Structure formats: structure tokens, C-alpha cells
């Protein structure tokens, strides 16, 4: 039983200090519940407001993609330098140590392959399993304008509704069908739809013209996918221009794990994203780290 003797009356109520009432640091996320904000604050660094997500979920429809044929070998050296890991539950349980202690954005859709129609996805993880895996967020694609647009939107709506019950945010990934034009109009449409259905943040591709407008028109944070492998300098430049134009970070896969030196590349990307290091300096950093590793 609690000791009730000698209970002292409170004296220091800090009457000169107004109660703390700080706005949450992420765009469009002020009205979310504590658990949701706490998970988002694990995904996005509260100091920079940005994130470096390492995406290695490609195998769920592509099989053993170059660079991650052996996830158990390729991913662990990158983990200390990533803010977040984005992967499937299969990859997580089989290849990633629970002691890694990084927030997980759980790929929660499947149902298609590179041999079939990519937009024909379904929700492929039960919310209970996402909770068991301590997911910081769950994710699926919206395929705007594709054959199964309606179904893909329904998948993301389902994730948002079930995740919201437990304070787990949803990342909506804008999946682009082969015949879609990758321009500001398309990504403006896709990212806005994703935010309006309730996604807590959205992944888009960077585009040369009008990316700033895509970000401005989306009321929640946008992170960019890396896309196909580019020379390191070009990938760093893309990351620089994306954050400079308002992106809240990257969700990058191939441009990291297919780099000649993935451990150096992820650190250079981190310098761009969190410290606004310019492209030339970041590329030099990449080369220096690579040569320090004897490569
Ligand atoms: C696949 C994804 C990938 O995670 C995403 O495309 C990021 O990887 P990359 O930088 O290689 O494009 O969402 O659907």
C-alpha cells in the first residue's frame, strides 16, 4: 500500500510559465492522436523534420532484385545509417534482427507480380500482425488511373481505417502504371487523392518540372522513391532537389542497395536529407567514405 504519511502539499506550480502547448512538427499531422504522432516522430526526425527510409520491399512482386538477392547480407550493414526500414513481414522475420531497433514501415499489400497487372493488389497483412511486429506504419499502393485503381484505393482506405484504430499511420505509395505520364499533373492528382482519403504521408516520385507544386498541393508530408538506379551524383542531386522543393525525405531502395558502395551512399543521402548538404559535397563524401572502406 502506498505510504500516506508525510504527504507534502505541492508548492511549485510554475505559475509564471504558460502550459506547454507545442504544435506537432509535421505538416498536416497536428490533429492526430498521441500514439500516431509518436510513431510519426520515430519515422521523421523531429530535428530536421525529414526521414531516410531504406526500402527493400521490392521482392514482394519482383523476386530477388539485384542488390538484395540476400537481404540477410545486404541490409544489416545499412541499418545503422537508416532512419526507417520499409519491408515485408517475410523479410523482417527472416532477415532482420529484432535488436535492430529501427522503426518499421510494413509493406502490407501483395497479390501481383511482374508477370501480371501491377495494380491488382490486395491487403496482405492483418492489422494484428502489424501490431505484433511493432510496425511504426503500414503501407500499400494507390494506382491512380490504372486498371485496378478502385481496388487499390480501397486497400489503402482499409489500412487507414484499421491502422487508425490502433494509432498506426498509413503511408500511401503512388504506384505508377506503365502507361502513365510521370508529370506534375499526375503526381499532383495521385498524392492529393492519397492524402484526402486519409493517408498520413505519401510517397511520390521526383519530377523535374513542378515537383514543388505537387508538394504544396498535398496536405501531408511527401517522401520520394528513388526509382531506377542512377549514377550516385545524379541520385544525390535528385534527393537534394526534392528536399529543397519541400519533400520530407526519401524512401530509397535501388539507388542505395545497387550502389557500388551502399554503406557510403546511404550516409551521403542522409547528409543531404538531414543537413541540406549540397550535391557536390555529398558526392565527395560518398567517394571519401567509399575509399575509407578500401573500395
Ligand atoms: C515498390 C516500392 C519501393 O519501396 C519503392 O519503389 C522504393 O524503392 P526504389 O527507390 O528502388 O524505387 O514501393 O513498390
What structural keywords apply?
295 residues, alpha/beta, eight-stranded parallel barrel, two-stranded antiparallel ribbon, 10 strands, 38% helix, binds ribulose-5-phosphate
Explain what the structure shows.
The chain has about 300 residues and is of the alpha/beta class. It has twelve helices and ten strands. Strands 1-2-3-6-7-8-9-10 form an eight-stranded parallel barrel, surrounded by six helices. Strand 2, helix 4 (about 90-95) and strand 3 (about 105) form a beta-alpha-beta unit. Helix 9 crosses helix 12 and helix 11 (about 260-275) runs antiparallel to helix 12. It is globular and about 70 Å long. The model has no long low-confidence stretch (mean pLDDT about 95). The structure holds ribulose-5-phosphate. Ribulose-5-phosphate (5RP) binds near residues 173, 225, 227 and 251.
Can you lay out the helices and strands and say which pair or pack?
Elements: H1 34-43, E1 51-55, H2 59-62, H3 71-74, E2 84-87, H4 89-95, E3 104-107, E4 109-110, E5 122-123, H5 127-132, E6 137-142, H6 149-165, E7 170-174, H7 184-196, E8 201-205, H8 211-216, E9 222-225, H9 232-244, E10 249-252, H10 254-257, H11 262-275, H12 279-292
Parallel strand pairs: 1-2, 1-10, 2-3, 3-6, 6-7, 7-8, 8-9, 9-10
Antiparallel strand pairs: 4-5
Helix pairs in contact: 9-11, 9-12, 11-12
The protein binds ribulose-5-phosphate (5RP).
Ribulose-5-phosphate binds next to β10 and α10.
Amino acid at each position: 500500500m502506498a505510504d500516506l504519511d508525510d504527504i507534502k502539499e505541492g508548492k511549485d506550480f510554475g505559475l509564471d510559465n504558460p502550459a506547454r502547448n507545442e504544435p506537432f512538427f509535421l505538416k498536416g499531422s497536428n490533429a492526430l492522436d498521441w500514439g500516431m504522432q509518436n510513431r510519426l516522430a520515430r519515422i521523421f526526425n523531429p530535428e530536421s523534420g525529414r526521414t531516410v527510409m531504406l526500402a527493400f520491399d521490392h521482392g514482394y512482386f519482383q523476386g530477388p532484385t539485384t542488390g538484395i538477392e540476400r537481404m540477410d547480407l545486404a541490409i544489416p550493414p545499412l541499418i545503422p545509417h537508416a532512419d526507417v526500414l520499409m519491408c515485408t513481414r517475410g523479410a523482417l522475420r527472416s532477415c532482420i534482427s529484432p535488436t535492430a531497433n529501427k522503426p518499421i514501415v510494413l509493406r502490407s499489400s501483395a497479390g501481383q507480380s511482374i508477370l501480371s497487372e501491377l495494380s491488382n493488389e490486395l491487403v496482405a497483412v492483418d492489422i494484428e500482425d502489424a501490431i505484433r511486429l511493432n510496425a511504426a506504419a503500414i503501407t500499400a499502393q494507390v494506382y491512380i488511373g490504372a486498371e485496378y485503381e478502385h481496388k487499390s484505393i480501397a486497400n489503402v482506405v482499409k489500412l487507414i481505417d484499421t491502422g487508425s484504430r490502433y494509432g498506426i499511420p498509413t503511408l500511401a505509395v503512388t504506384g505508377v502504371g506503365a502507361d502513365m505520364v510521370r508529370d506534375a499533373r499526375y503526381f499532383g492528382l495521385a498524392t492529393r487523392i492519397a492524402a484526402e482519403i486519409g493517408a498520413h504521408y505519401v510517397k511520390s516520385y521526383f519530377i523535374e518540372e513542378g515537383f514543388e507544386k505537387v508538394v504544396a498541393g498535398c496536405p501531408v508530408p511527401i517522401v520520394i522513391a528513388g526509382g531506377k538506379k542512377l549514377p550516385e551524383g545524379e541520385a544525390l542531386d535528385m534527393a537534394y532537389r526534392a528536399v529543397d522543393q519541400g519533400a520530407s525525405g526519401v524512401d530509397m531502395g535501388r539507388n542505395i542497395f545497387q550502389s557500388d558502395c551502399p554503406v557510403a551512399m546511404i550516409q551521403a543521402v542522409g547528409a543531404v536529407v538531414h543537413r541540406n548538404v549540397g550535391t557536390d559535397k555529398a558526392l565527395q563524401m560518398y567517394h571519401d567514405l567509399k575509399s575509407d572502406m578500401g573500395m
